[in-house]
Amino acid sequence: SGPMTVDVRSLYKELGYFTYDPGFMSTASCESKITYLDGDKGILEYRGYPIEQLAEESSFLETCYLLLNGELPNEKELEEFEESIRTRSMLQEQLKTFFLGFRRDAHPMATMVGVVGALSSFYHEDEDVHSQEDRMDAAHRLIAKMPTIAAWSYRYSKGMPFVYPKNSLSYSANFLHMMFSMPSEPYTVDPLMEKALDMILVLHADHEQNASTSTVRLAGSSEANPFAVIAAGIASLWGPSHGGANEAVIQMLTEINESGKPISDFIDRAKDPKDRFRLMGFGHRVYKNYDPRAKIIRKTCHEMIAENTFSNPEHKKLLETAMELEKIALEDEYFVSRNLYPNVDFYSGIIFLGMGIPLNMFTVLFALGRTVGWISQWNEMMGDPGSKIGRPRQLYTGEDKRDYVKIDKR
Ligand code: ACO
């Protein structure tokens, strides 16, 4: 009686076979208590709380606490957590020279991969990945330092002086301050922009076993240093099929506008199986219904349009093209039949544009939000006594055994 359970590991040991599942279309790589996702129904929950409620009610730091600890904090717990993050936002001063070693025009994602990885050289000997306390230490450090690293990567790429964190500000306001403050003129953070950014960070905070999170788990499964592990996650996120899509959306809209060709040409290309061109910001591996994050952020995007936030005429043109694409894709048989809805990156790209965030910082902001998800998943894995080093198998399709041929005989 009761549900029948199959121990896949012992099946493999006894029968010696394993599954072949390219792209992990139907293979779970772990158990997790962090994020629940139902792609068919369009449901996303962090620790059981619906994303819609968290986006509306919670702050990014409160969501970080929830993801890391499993429960929403009470007032005292939140205060202590915020204080812990605030007091760790500075970088070791030597790291400044590390930034200076990059090419001036380096993409901020490239700089971030390097700098976050380099943090492992500061925090290694005294960090035990098997100690919950040390893991939380690393988690707080990463969440706290990421905005500083992100903003400094941008400032360096523009040849602008670094701005130190101002710990009287909120997490999101502090990031905007480090991005946009100038020594000559005081910068006041726009509260609407602060709120929009905080909400976007909440929406990006975790998304179970996506490519970058799976990278983090695989890299961490060898008991590697957490800062090096998160650098691996940032590298995976950078690709245009994943977090790089928000930047690619704007590049695509620009290409469409500059080409002078009708949008239908691009739609036809996206449908052509021989053409590698895809509509950036459309489709999702698991959401075969509308991405609930896209639903929330779409509302913000349309509010910004209604409030005339896009005053820059170039941005306005990009926005018009985006809205035309959205309409076509929601009606076109090809996109409808394949459930290729606009995803969260489609709208976040447009919102960042309206907020005046530079294009090469779009994916960086995704990384900023996702850091807590990566580190929560890593912490969960390291705390599980049953976890193992990740070691996928392969189906070998190469040559049969053959003898070495001396070079003069080839
Ligand atoms: N434009 C045109 N056609 C598409 C698109 C697209 N954006 N996405 C998928 N398709 C088509 C495929 O050609 C395929 O068609 P077929 O059935 O005729 O062969 C079908 O839809 C299924 O596509 P797959 O590639 O099998 O879907 P997969 O789940 O592997 O890919 C992915 C998901 C990578 C997100 C894909 O939709 C894509 O490349 N989208 C554009 C990039 C993007 O926006 N990425 C962000 C993802 S969300 C995130 O990271 C937060």
UniProtKB/TrEMBL annotation:
Q: Which reaction does it catalyse?
A: oxaloacetate + acetyl-CoA + H2O = citrate + CoA + H(+)
Do you know which Pfam families this protein is assigned to?
Citrate_synt
Quote the InterPro entries the UniProt record gives: Citrate_synth-like_lrg_a-sub, Citrate_synth-like_sm_a-sub, Citrate_synthase, Citrate_synthase_AS, Citrate_synthase_bac-typ, Citrate_synthase_sf, Citrate_synthase_typ-I
Mind listing the GO biological process terms from this record?
tricarboxylic acid cycle
The Gene Ontology terms for molecular function here are:
citrate synthase activity
User: Where are the membrane-spanning stretches?
Assistant: 346-368
Positions of the catalytic residues: H284, D345
Per UniProt, the keywords (alphabetical) are: Membrane, Transferase, Transmembrane, Transmembrane helix, Tricarboxylic acid cycle
Q: Which SUPFAM superfamilies match?
A: Citrate synthase
Gene Ontology CC: cytoplasm
Pathway of action:
Carbohydrate metabolism; tricarboxylic acid cycle; isocitrate from oxaloacetate: step 1/2
Q: Which PANTHER family match?
A: CITRATE SYNTHASE
Q: Tell me the protein family, please.
A: Belongs to the citrate synthase family.
What is the name of the protein in this document? Answer: Citrate synthase
Q: Which organism is it from?
A: Cocleimonas flava
